[in-house]
User: Fold this.
Amino acid sequence: MLSSERLRSEVFKPLWLKMTALKYTIKITNINSLETYYGSKADFVEKLGTRISYVTKAEKGERKTVCGWRITYSEKYS
Assistant:
């Protein structure tokens, strides 16, 4: 049995961080067609069918593109 403080720090806080990590807004442009997407990161990851880590690396500048899309604005990393 976990104490309420330990339960909060070990279970609820990590879950809350994962749930809110994808809720912020990004603006991303397709390199070839110049189509622009503006919306939540979670919706874009679902639309593209890619890994979350690839999009995060592109936001941080560790990758240039994600499947032909370039991130031009990220609410979290701006």
